Amino acid sequence: MTRHLLRDDDLTPQEQAEILTLAAELKTDRWKVQPLAGPQTVAVIFDKSSTRTRVSFAVGIADLGGSPLIISTANSQLGGKETPADTARVLERQVAAIVWRTYAQAGLEEMAAGTRVPVINALSDDFHPCQILADLLTIQEHKGELKGLTLAFFGDGRTNMGQSYVLGGVTAGMHVRVASPVEYAPREDVVADADRRAAQTGGSVALYTDPNEAAAGADIIVTDTWVSMGKEDEKLQRLRDLTPYKVSQELMSLAKDDAIFIHCLPADRGYEVDAEVIDGPQSVVWDEAENRLHAQKALLVWLLQQQ
């Protein structure tokens, strides 16, 4: 059966751990496996601009012996004359996998339904599972065992990153705290799904409106941009609403002494995080950015093995 990664809980806890283990191995030996040798082609489709996703998938596919085919929807029929399902039917006869950075989660679900090759969510409005795998790999490198760690996220909990931390974090057995205004909390159905997964792993999800309470004793402090792509017209309102959730050195001081700071980038220094934090000794954002490469390679290898 063809497997896809459309949201973080598409992976079981055991499967997530297998991918992270493989990612660590591939980081040590980048050319250990080359399942795409031939080279086979992977379609990498972009509705949104990108730096880390574009580079890490292109380099990773090449590392695996394959050829990345970068497609911009602005220069294709996808989203215009052609449906995601029809595009998938065309691509699946020519490529080994499809990676799509898009807006609506529904488009990814339509593309994956009945498709014979793996479809990977490289970012949607709802979830960002590839980034979470990279973040978990980074946390694992710096903290060892993931299970039982407390991760505190600050800002817009309803963004793709907030919701993926909730699902992916509890899948790893972590205790995930989301600090945000009530109207920016993760969707109720996502929290309910995370609670069900947490019952299997011993993890937990907790929602806070007080950022100081959320930071207290945390192992990992996380934030994301307050103005995601497509939300630019809401910038002033978001700055007003989310300013109390800025990650400052004062907030970091409430976490454990050895807490680390992560951010998926790009960052708006002075808005969601102060420069002294993201550029400081507790920040591991550059390890995190590199780990997109290793985590996505492991994901591709694992998905291709399920074929």
TrEMBL record:
Enzyme Commission (EC) number: 2.1.3.3
InterPro entries with a match to the protein in the record: Asp/Orn_carbamoyltranf_P-bd, Asp/Orn_carbamoylTrfase, Asp/Orn_carbamoylTrfase_sf, Asp_carbamoyltransf_Asp/Orn-bd, Orn/put_carbamltrans, OTCase_ArgI
A GO CC term assigned to this protein in UniProt: cytoplasm
Source species: Microbacterium schleiferi
The keyword Transferase is annotated on this UniProt entry: yes
Name of the protein this chain belongs to: Ornithine carbamoyltransferase
Record-level GO BP terms: citrulline biosynthetic process; L-arginine biosynthetic process via ornithine
Chain residues that bind L-ornithine: 160, 224, 228-229
Organism classification: Bacteria, Bacillati, Actinomycetota, Actinomycetes, Micrococcales
Residues engaged in binding carbamoyl phosphate: 50-53, 77, 101, 128-131, 264-265, 292
Aspartate/ornithine carbamoyltransferase carbamoyl-P binding domain residues: 3-141
Keyword Glycosyltransferase: no
